[in-house]
Amino acid sequence: MASSVSCVHSIPLPDGAEPAVFAAVRQDSYRVHVTASEPDAVARLVEEIDGRRVALVTDDVVAGLHGDRLVGRLRGAGLRVDTTTFPAGEGSKNLDTAWSLLDWLAASSIQRRDVVVALGGGVVIDTVGWVASAYMRGVPYINVPTTLLGAVDAALGGKVAVDHWCAKNLIGAFYQPKAVVSHVGFLGTLDRRQLAAGLAEVIKKGVIGSPGLFELIERSVDDVLAGDAVALERVVAAASVVKCALIAADPYEEDLRRPLNLGHTVGHAVETVTGYGPVLHGEAVAYGMAVACEISSRRGLLDDGVRDRLLTLLRRAGLPTRLHDLRQPPKPADVVEALDCIRRIRDGCLRFVLPVELGHTVIADDVCDDDVLEAIVATAGTDDA
Ligand SMILES: NC(=O)c1ccc[n+]([C@@H]2O[C@H](COP(=O)([O-])OP(=O)(O)OC[C@H]3O[C@@H](n4cnc5c(N)ncnc54)[C@H](O)[C@@H]3O)[C@@H](O)[C@H]2O)c1
Ligand SMILES: [Zn+2]
Questions:
Q1: Mean pLDDT across the chain, nearest whole number?
Q2: 361: left (phi > 0), else alpha (psi -120 to 50), else beta?
Q3: Could you give the dihedral angle defined by the CA atoms of residues 231, 237, 240 and 246, in that order, rounded to the nearest 10 degrees?
Q4: Among 16, 75, 316, 378, whose CB has the most other CB atoms within 10 angstroms?
Q5: Cα→Cα distances 43→50, 68, 69, 70, 230, Å
């Protein structure tokens, strides 16, 4: 049946020469489903897809492990699904991959109201999210994380990006997903090291914002590392709630003093010096938290009991708390030099998040290179710092 809508306007012209003002408000909200049941995960995903055509993107490792099966389930539910993959790993998180995904979308019949599904770890989620933000000025996308780091961190918050040769995550946007569906069954094929690296980001959230989450990890760290689905479901669900609450106050990161950066200042420097490979991001963050503890203790800010609990938990997870625990221990002076580059990128100011108590951090901008060097030397690994 034909339909028509009339549009009538009579916009008054201003008397003076005032500049035009434009204002737009956008409210994004989405559900984060966490489940240990495959039928439940598929049902939630189908519900979120809501009959649209699907462009599912994953990497070539996840495709074989979980992708083909999930695509079969979605097609079995009557959905039209196109799928493509790219090579696994951080080396693919770049404009070349994004460009080939844009070519693929342009050649497909995906329309602006269809949906892109990002199935994979943080690399797939970040890359596909950025492509979704750019294609047709933004198509809806759903994150289906398959790593613990992806589930508790990358999938939430809409920070999408690809790397540039001169800096990680340099080309990106804030573009929120339509939904997140975390099926912890996917995490069953991760090795212990990858699980521990994801756990580092959960422990960080506990320290920053939730003693309850911290205690939950203390109780369940062994089960999580053994891949126990019940423990994983509980931890992913709790960490998702805590992350959503922490980012809600400043979703577009206007304030540079962000507690979520705990462990990341030294962590990024370690990743830079070691060339983004031998040390996993979560491992670098764990070590960065240990250095932040040392700086905080030296300032008399951190309670000894809390410090012991945090270092003990990191060690129980098999995460590095001393420089020599890292797979490729850098020289302390090189880490401090790398901090200098980060300082230049960030307008000459480095902010250190220092733990005080569980749920209480202080963000200090007066931590100097000597403070960091002393803390790194003290946590080098020759004694039980
Ligand atoms: N956007 C954000 O807010 C945010 C937050 C944290 C990290 N990140 C980004 O996330 C990336 C790191 O994510 P990651 O650690 O998930 O790395 P990743 O995506 O590279 O995955 C690690 C490896 O595990 C494989 N893999 C994925 N799922 C698997 C499974 N279920 N079983 C077996 N193997 C599996 C992948 O193929 C890959 O080889 C970085 O690029 C980082 O910048 C983004
Ligand atoms: Zn991180």
A1: 94
A2: beta
A3: -100
A4: 378
A5: 11, 17, 14, 11, 19
Catalytic residue at 69? no
- Backbone phi and psi for residue 145, each to the nearest 5 degrees, phi listed first: -70, 145
Ligand 1 binding pocket includes 90 (Cβ within 6 Å): yes
Token representation of residue 197: 């690296």
What is the C-alpha separation between 265 and 289, in angstroms, rounded? 9
Among 281, 283, 294, 322, the one annotated catalytic:
281
pLDDT tens string 119-146: 999 999 999 999 999 999 999 999 999 9
**Residues 351/261, Cβ–Cβ less than 8 Å:** yes
**Catalytic one of 233, 268, 271, 322:** 268
CB atoms near residue 359 (< 10 Å): 16
Write the Ramachandran bin of 326: left for phi over 0, alpha for psi from -120 to 50, otherwise beta. Answer: beta
Q: Is the pTM of this model over 0.90?
A: yes
For residue 299, give the 3-state DSSP assignment: coil
- pLDDT tens digits, residue range 227-280? 999 999 999 999 999 999 999 989 998 887 789 999 999 999 999 899 888 999
Q: How far away, in angstroms, is 147 Cα from ligand 1 center?
A: 6
CA angle, 242 then 245 then 247, to 5° = 110
Quick check: CB of 243 below 6 Å from ligand 1? no
Is there a contact between 59 and 84 (Cβ–Cβ < 8 Å)?
no
Helix H or strand E encompassing 43: helix 38-49
